[in-house]
Design brief:
single chain, 241 residues, alpha/beta, 51% helix, 11% strand
């Protein structure tokens, strides 16, 4: 029969040791996957190249989709970020509340420069933001991130196929996405919405790659990489397109 006093005493001695070992293992694992912010840490360089930046994002997405994201102390590292930021990627994302790029790619504060607009298309304001990120923050990667069941793309499909009418400034949003739906329709896909979402990402990637006077030159000089992907709402996985 168990001696409760002895059991409690043994538990009290073992638990701190186990916690220490687990903590050390956890820190080692985190350190292998990226920057571990601390109160006195310096922000690491983002001079890593577009391929490496994309690799880090996709590794983070794998952790997120597996429900094994890195644990973080969000209060740590804030002081270092006050003076500078060195994001590894700039992301163009839909404004959809179900899509959270920092979480989907399991990144720290300061790792991602984010531009959002419903339908994740490139307008002049967004383009200026990416020019700033590339020219002055030296991001090595721009990623266009669409997602399945996108309401903005679906609305555009309905306007073109069913002559639906939208109020306010929504027709301007439709006009921006319209070329992607038209191009996707030419292939007569079984799922027009899914095809248009992917095509919308491709068109945004193309515009960013060729945007003058800043981004095109940086892409040609291999100082900047532009890629695209589609986020699956159910699984959390990002598929590159």
């Amino acid at each position: 029969m168990c001696d409760c006093a002895k059991c409690l005493s043994a538990s009290a001695l073992v638990t701190p040791r186990r916690r220490l070992l687990l903590g050390a293992a956890t820190l080692a694992a985190f350190g292998a996957t990226g920057w571990l912010p601390t109160a006195n840490a310096e922000v690491p360089s983002n001079d890593i190249g577009g391929e490496e930046a994309l690799k880090r994002l996709m590794a983070g997405n794998a952790r997120y989709a597996a429900n094994k994201p890195n644990m973080r102390d969000f209060s740590a590292g804030r002081a270092a970020l006050v003076k500078t930021q060195k994001p590894i990627a700039a992301i163009l994302s839909c404004s959809d509340s179900r899509v959270a790029p920092e979480l989907a790619f399991d990144q720290n504060p300061g790792d991602v420069f984010l531009v959002r607009v419903a339908g994740n298309f490139v307008n002049d304001d967004g383009l200026a933001s990416f020019e700033y990120a590339a020219k002055f923050l030296n991001v090595p990667l721009i990623l266009v991130l669409g997602h399945n069941n996108c309401g903005a793309v679906d609305a555009t499909v309905k306007v073109l196929k069913e002559q639906a009418e939208l109020p306010g400034h929504l027709p301007e949003l439709v006009n921006a996405i319209k070329p992607a739906v038209e191009r996707a329709s030419k292939g007569e896909p079984k799922n027009l919405l899914a095809a248009a979402i992917a095509e919308n990402v491709r068109l945004a990637v193309q515009r960013l790659q060729t945007a003058q006077p800043i981004l095109r030159g940086m892409v040609e000089q291999k100082k900047l990489m532009v890629a695209g992907g589609v986020y699956d709402l159910a699984s959390g996985k990002v598929k590159l397109v």
